Automatic annotation (TrEMBL):
<dbReference type="InterPro" id="IPR013780">
    <property type="entry name" value="Glyco_hydro_b"/>
</dbReference>
<dbReference type="Pfam" id="PF06964">
    <property type="entry name" value="Alpha-L-AF_C"/>
</dbReference>
<protein>
    <recommendedName>
        <fullName>non-reducing end alpha-L-arabinofuranosidase</fullName>
        <ecNumber>3.2.1.55</ecNumber>
    </recommendedName>
</protein>
<dbReference type="Pfam" id="PF22848">
    <property type="entry name" value="ASD1_dom"/>
</dbReference>
<keyword id="KW-0378">Hydrolase</keyword>
<feature type="domain" description="Alpha-L-arabinofuranosidase C-terminal">
    <location>
        <begin position="293"/>
        <end position="497"/>
    </location>
</feature>
<comment type="subunit">
    <text>Homohexamer; trimer of dimers.</text>
</comment>
<keyword id="KW-0119">Carbohydrate metabolism</keyword>
<dbReference type="InterPro" id="IPR055235">
    <property type="entry name" value="ASD1_cat"/>
</dbReference>
<dbReference type="InterPro" id="IPR010720">
    <property type="entry name" value="Alpha-L-AF_C"/>
</dbReference>
<dbReference type="InterPro" id="IPR017853">
    <property type="entry name" value="GH"/>
</dbReference>
<comment type="similarity">
    <text>Belongs to the glycosyl hydrolase 51 family.</text>
</comment>
<keyword id="KW-0326">Glycosidase</keyword>
Length: 504
């Protein structure tokens, strides 16, 4: 195999990593909330019903912003059902996931969950623009954020939350372009309601940061036209536009699946181009940033099969939905998606791994039982830990391979982040299923001379997974033989591997 190469130079950078790039997502969907983060009566549950074993893993994962309460769920969400004494909250039909929502976990419990994670956790709250509108968004904002002395802020205090929640980051609805969305809208209809909601929310508090809904996928027929129309209406009123993308191997096309980040990078670049086009049309100096607030590997086609039978069931509470069990190969693709986000840190200001627990998640739980790490847990935890600082511009010279969907793709996908103390971490994926990839990185200008660690996630069996019965089958291992000599880092990347190479 030909050696892959790139050069790192501190003079050539992409941008600073926003800590919000390591966000996640808790939706009222399946067992993400109930028996996921919240399970009163579980052996590890605290007085609020929050599972400590899950909280420990969430901290270890290193998540920052946590989007809530949906997702598709938000388009039927009545925030007032989710506050006040838990025993008197109403049970509701959740049309999005054909379930019964008990509202035992609500806004106050979500905020308590964030506080327990620690100061790195930030709320990212969505308002319902599917079945509701400006008035309800304003009421929720007042309940959550107004200090005191009004009906809704005093109501919050009477519910036990004297201090305002201080929610700064808000999503204006969810996937409003999708026909599956309750209250789905055309771009013009959504642009109008998003603009009016944004204007009113800013009247209440000019300091809020707002995310307008972009397309729910790059493959949507309305993609790009949707963004342009929505931004034309909202450009001066919002800060971010959302992107959502999920990947799976379709029709057995594993080679294209391994290159999923090619699609993710083109999606980001196309949305940036669309934002800037609208900005130019409006003669605006302002730049709209990207909130990639749903991304992951998701075996969605399996869920679509399940959905047909599921919809006939009897509105269950917290059913097992979307509980994908991830392989080593999935984790390598997942790592490559993280690399794609980091490579665009100049414009991707927020990103949320969908989701956090049980539902297409890095953390799994068993009701009344254990919590464990999926394979995807490891790349996320490592990227969140070592991917803080300034992203360096990485242009790879790599051997390539052929894919059905994306044509010729690089076998090497990489990025590098320089921390404030000058240490540098290279994140790299070898997409080859069969061959190790020799790598040379010129690091002369960086002032690093020492390898701290080369860690890799790879396995002789790319289908290996962690399960309830074998929760520690897969974990990263240390790679020998990597060195920095005379200004060059040399390493060998195992076939189908995610790599973290730390230099000091
Ligand atoms: O994350 C699962 C679902 O995927 C979300 O509810 C929705 O926004 C998206 O389609």
């Amino acid at each position: 195999m030909r050696t892959a190469r790139f050069t790192l130079d501190p003079a050539f950078t992409v941008g600073q990593v926003n800590p919000r790039l390591f966000g996640s997502f808790v939706e009222h969907l399946g067992r993400c909330v109930y028996t996921g983060v919240y399970e009163p009566g579980h052996a590890t549950a605290d007085e609020a019903g929050l599972r400590q074993d899950v909280l420990d893993l969430v901290r270890e994962l290193g998540v920052t912003a946590i989007r809530y309460p949906g997702g598709n769920f938000v388009s039927g969400y009545k925030w007032e059902d989710s506050v006040g004494p838990a025993e008197s909250r109403p049970r509701r039909l959740d049309l999005a996931w054909h379930s019964t929502e008990t509202n035992r976990f609500g806004l106050s419990e979500y905020m308590a969950f964030l506080r327990k994670i620690g100061p790195q956790a930030e709320p990212m709250m969505a308002v319902n623009l599917g079945t509701r509108g400006v008035a309800e968004a304003l009421e929720l904002q007042e309940y959550a954020n107004h200090p005191s002395g009004t009906a809704l802020s005093d109501l919050r205090a009477s519910h036990g939350d004297k201090d305002p929640f201080g929610i700064r980051l808000w999503c204006l609805g969810n996937e409003m372009d999708g026909p599956w969305q309750t209250g789905h809208k055309t771009a013009r209809e959504y642009g109008r309601i998003a603009a009016e909601t944004a204007r009113a929310m800013r009247q209440q508090d000019p300091g809020v940061e707002l995310v307008a809904c972009g397309s729910s996928a790059q493959s949507m027929p309305t993609f790009a036209e949707w963004e342009a129309t929505v931004l034309q209406e909202t450009y001066d009123l919002v800060d971010h536009i959302s992107l959502h993308a999920y990947y799976e191997p379709l029709d057995g096309d594993v080679d294209s699946f391994l290159a999923s980040a090619v699609d993710m990078e083109s999606f980001i670049e196309n949305v940036v181009a669309t934002c800037d086009h609208v900005g130019a049309r409006l003669k605006s100096q302002k730049k709209i940033n990207l909130s990639f607030d749903e991304w992951n590997v998701w075996y969605m086609s399996r869920w679509q099969e399940q959905a047909t039978t599921f919809a006939q069931d009897d509105w269950p509470e917290a059913p097992r939905l979307l509980e994908d069990n991830y392989s080593v190969m999935d984790a390598v693709v997942f790592g490559s998606l993280l690399i794609a986000l980091l490579r665009h840190a100049d414009r991707v200001a927020v990103a949320c791994l969908a989701q956090l627990v049980n539902v297409i998640a890095p953390i799994m739980t068993e009701p009344g039982g254990a919590a464990w790490r999926q394979t995807t847990f490891f790349p996320f935890a490592q990227a969140s830990r070592y991917g803080r600082g300034e992203v360096l511009d990485v242009r790879v010279d790599s051997p390539t391979y052929e894919t059905r969907k994306y044509g010729e793709a690089d076998l090497l996908h990489a990025t590098a982040v320089r921390a404030q103390d000058g240490s540098v971490t290279v994140f790299a994926v070898n997409r080859s299923r069969t061959e190790a990839l020799p790598l040379d990185v010129a690091v002369t200008g960086l002032g690093v001379s020492r390898l701290v660690e080369h860690s890799a996630l790879a396995d002789a069996d790319p289908d290996a997974r962690n399960t309830l019965d074998d929760p520690e089958r897969v974990a990263p291992h240390t790679v020998d033989g990597t060195a920095v000599t005379d200004g060059t880092l040399t390493a060998t990347l195992e076939p189908l591997s995610w790599n973290v190479i730390r230099l000091a």
